[in-house]
Amino acid sequence: MKNKLETIPFKDTPEQKAQLEQIIQDYKDVPGALVQVLKKAQEVYGYLPLEVQITVAEGLGISLEEVYGVVTFYSFFSINPKGQYEISVCLGTACYVKGAGDVINKISDVLGIKDGGCTPDGKFSLRACRCIGACGLAPVLTINDDVYGRLTTDETVKVLQKYMA
Amino acid sequence: MYRAHVLVCGGTGCTSSGSAKIITAFESELEQANLGNEVKVIRTGCFGLCAEGPIVIVYPEGCFYSRVQPEDVAEIVAEHLVKGRPVKRLLYKETVVDETTIKSLNHTGFYEKQHRVALKNCGVIDPENIEEYIAYDGYQALAKCLTEYTPEQVIQIIKDSGLRGRGGAGFPTGLKWSFAAANKADQKYVCCNADEGDPGAFMDRSILEGDPHALLEAMAIAGYAIGATKGYVYIRAEYPIAVKRLEIAIAQAKEYGLMGKNILSSGFDFDLEIRLGAGAFVCGEETALMTSIEGKRGEPRPRPPFPAVKGLFQKPTVLNNVETYANIAQIILNGPEWFTAMGTEKSKGTKVFALGGKINNTGLVEVPMGTTLREVVEDIGGGIPNGKKFKAAQTGGPSGGCIPAHLIDTPIDYDNLLAIGSMMGSGGLIVMDEDNCMVDIAKFFLEFTVEESCGKCTPCRIGTKRLYEMLEKITKGEGTLEDLDKMEALCYYIKENSLCGLGQTAPNPVLSTLRYFRDEYVAHVVDKKCPAGVCKDLLQYSIIEDKCKGCTACARKCPVGAISGSVKNPHVIDTAKCIKCGACIETCKFDAIIRK
Hints:
The complex is a heterodimer of chains A (165) and B (596).
Chain A: H1 14-27, H2 34-45, H3 50-60, H4 64-73, E1 85-90, H5 93-97, H6 100-111, E2 124-129, E3 141-143, E4 146-148, H7 153-164
Parallel strand pairs in A: 1-2
Antiparallel strand pairs in A: 1-3, 3-4
Helix pairs in contact in A: 1-2, 1-3, 2-3, 3-4, 6-7
Chain B: E1 4-9, H1 12-16, H2 19-32, E2 39-44, E3 56-59, E4 63-65, H3 73-82, H4 109-112, H5 130-135, H6 140-148, H7 151-161, H8 173-182, E5 189-194, H9 203-210, H10 212-226, E6 230-236, H11 240-255, E7 260-263, E8 268-277, H12 286-293, E9 317-321, H13 322-334, H14 336-340, E10 350-357, E11 363-368, H15 373-380, E12 390-395, E13 401-404, H16 414-419, E14 428-433, H17 438-452, H18 458-475, H19 481-497, H20 501-505, H21 508-516, H22 518-525, E15 541-543, H23 553-557, E16 563-564, E17 572-573, H24 583-587, E18 593-595
Parallel strand pairs in B: 1-2, 5-6, 5-9, 6-8, 10-14
Antiparallel strand pairs in B: 1-3, 3-4, 7-8, 10-11, 12-13, 12-14, 15-18, 16-17
């Protein structure tokens, strides 16, 4: 179950709106296409706020409950906005036994946000993810496409400071 | 013809530690040295020894360079590739015998006891080039099936080999195929579970990244055996490299006429599609996976009807995982006797493990079934770092259990693991040392299952939540001995009443830690202590008087003013005020503060 953690107001551009309409048109008559539509919608907006879910539900002629049910079922979909820098801390078992729990707690403390949250300025978002397969580097975190491994809490703070400047 | 080959690992582990930059560096250095036509750089799949990544192997010598950095590349090119002198300081130290001798990688501790079947081509061939796969006997097994064997014969070979599913429960693969083959239908499907959800297991991804054609070939063979013309690979969207290589492989196979209509002019048609999973652990359960391919919430369905009767889109379906398929072509080529010669009485062949946690050689290892845990941990894994003691190994991920030190000589196979309260699962093998709290580990897995429970059936949805809450209570020091009994009873209730494999196995981490580490639970509830020093609420911070110099650094750092004392005199911590944040320990330069 995902909790909505942030209250950053939803904004969209006419281009995003048009793209979403197009996606819905493309898949309107394809049975079982909801997951695909949501994936593409998330590519357009970066996340799936309620406003987007409503548009998808109305566009595909299915209930909002069904859309919300699928969105909250799969961890790939996010109902919270992502920051400019998306921090993912691996909480796979290998990373966990090597102290990934301390790493994520430290980031929470430093940034003042919880797992799934985004800082009010939209700069950082934080999420726990499951095994990214870099177990040799445990514990690992990624910030956008950059990977940082063999972390301690001190080093985690140093990594964050690079992005805070 | 090239006179030398430089193999750079392009698996996810090495890519994470920067192997892409190394490939670029090699290409530009070789260009500058005018060796572009003499030395070929190849991006391969995983070599297995992820802890030593990024890894580069130079052939024909077979020099194994570990932890290579982009700035080292110029030296390797100038010294090794131009002058023929291996760069000793970068060689993996296990391969260096003395000043003048280097031994083969296959004779190092990490590789010696391994036997690579499923990982045969990983780290050997270029996964994006079908011709390299074909050169290593690729698609010969498919050709043999289509031209020499009837579908019944193919199934009989797989049955005779004793191959069991490598994804979890270990169901005999040949039997599964025969059920689907026996059902008549206008359409049947072959599916592959590449939705590796066990946190800490990455063998399936490594096979997809290192040897994608092995999967394609095996799925086509399965299609021929059961009479299916269409297949789906359900793969995690979080595996971008694997998805890309699979797409390339499918396109190449079609181009070569090894997939699509009338394969090898045999009249057999087979086509494959990729479906991206969107991240749900329960979708590793076969019926949930099929529901998800159909575009819905991936919730499991009651069985029967089994997928062999009514699976994907209500049609007979065979579903196997990646590692299972990776064995198929070789069983066909080498014969079932070759396969049954490996392993134990009821578990034939080999198993790939993702070795991780508190172990020196983190990585991917493949060993014959029946290899003992001790051999895997001590000989292959190189033991525990920092001279710590082995406490337990966890297998089977959130569905498995912890194997304690006194059972370290257990030969690993399906039945032995079940008997000691764990399971094979997909092959994650996480090693823990004395600094890991077993109650905390159980809580970690339950937190995972609570989040991943799909919610369809009550025992799993509510049961796992209650179980998690009890564990939380214990780690906070609020548990009672009665809670332990209640917890155990609840575990059995969840196991017996849940709809699918997720719920039926979710209590295993709790049951196995209760069975082997009950004293640790008791320490939490009776003594209100966490012996491993992990559970924050049970820790007490104190200052060792003799070591404290009275520098005041900790008192200034403490966010709640819990530390008092005068300059140059030992300080004290007021445990009532202390919030156990650990800031003082990090600050103290004299190791005067302890936590226990």
